Amino acid sequence: MRHVGAIAGRELRALFVSPVAYVVLTLWSMLAGFFFLSEVIQFGNEVDQLQQLGAFDELRDWNLNDHLLMPFFGTMWIVLVFAVPGISMGLLAGEKVNRTEELLLTSPLSIWEIVLGKYLAGAFFVFVMTLIVAFYPALLFVYGDPEIGKTVTGILGLFLVSLSYVAVGLFASSLTRNYLVAFFVAFGILLTLMMLPFIAELGASGDTFGGSSFVAATLRWISTAGHFEQIAKGWIDSGDLFYFFAFPFAFLILAKTAVESVRWR
Fold first, then answer.
1. What residues have CB less than 8 Å from 180, skipping those under 6 apart?
2. DSSP calls for 39-67
3. What does the pLDDT profile of the chain (265 residues) look like in tens digits?
4. Measured distance CA(160)–CA(219) in Å, rounded
5. How far apart are CA 34 and CA 22, in angstroms?
6. Buried b (16+ CB within 10 A) or exposed e, 151-171
7. What is residue 174's three-state secondary structure?
8. What are the angstrom distances between the C-alpha of 96 and each of 93, 109, 175?
9. Residue 115 has what DSSP assignment?
10. Angle formed by the axes of helices 148-174 and 179-205, nearest 10°
């Protein structure tokens, strides 16, 4: 595994040489700023309305984390569904487009080193994206008094979701040489994962699963939504941490299998 860092560094240099990385980071920063400002304005308006109505008992239960940061993190989680496929679509597909795939596969590098190196590059990129998001809640500590624990776990949840989505994007990129196809495959998988809780609710209410709650519970567990929400609320559970280890690992295995199949053709 000694070549993983070299592969990750090579991929990051390729990312930042092209304008793609800067375009994604610029758009991400603008969207994060826009949604954060929107949540701040909405929070202020709702507080003003409650004060005008004299609902002071309800105001005592209001806090920046539950009514401002949680919606903000939730919105950025949705934006990740679009952003991560954009940065991961070329991780392996780019090797095919540039005709360097054969050279890479015939080198002394193992398949795991290739896959993990590419994944590490994507992980570093989403880490930068997470730092950008973290800048906005940090402003609240200057002008407000949010809870440190919930703020940190919200940012952690967003980062763990990003890592999972990078693994999905890497798998999609291993299937094709076309960037757009890789983008839409990853986007389709992530969108399906996002919709699983709604499918579970509809199936349970319509008795689609034959009255069995096991299928509905399984669909909810597979989706990243519930695990992210739990961590964002400040409830760090070993089951959620296991999920965010097992989920990307499963897609890394799928990506390895796809790359390995190319080597043996």
1. 89
2. HHHHHHHHHHHHHHHT-HHHHHT--HIII
3. 677 888 888 888 888 887 878 888 999 999 999 999 999 898 878 777 767 776 666 666 677 788 888 999 999 999 999 999 988 888 888 877 777 776 666 677 788 888 899 999 999 999 999 999 999 999 888 877 788 888 999 999 999 999 999 999 999 998 988 889 999 999 999 999 888 888 777 755 555 554 457 777 788 888 888 889 889 888 888 888 999 999 999 999 999 998 887 665 5
4. 19
5. 18
6. bebbbbbbbbbbbbbbbbbbb
7. helix
8. 5, 17, 10
9. H
10. 120
Tell me the helix, strand and coil percentages in the chain, rounded to 5: 85, 0, 15
Nearest-10 Cα torsion for 238, 243, 244, 245: 90
Residue 106 CB-half CA count within 13 A: 6
Give the torsion sign (CA, 29, 31, 36, 38): positive
251's tokens: 């897609």
Contact of 231 with 160, CB cutoff 8 Å: yes
Name the token pair of 209: 């699963």
Spatial CB neighbours of 123, under 8 Å, sequence gap ≥ 6: 163, 166
Looking at this protein, which amino acid is placed at residue 170?
Answer: L
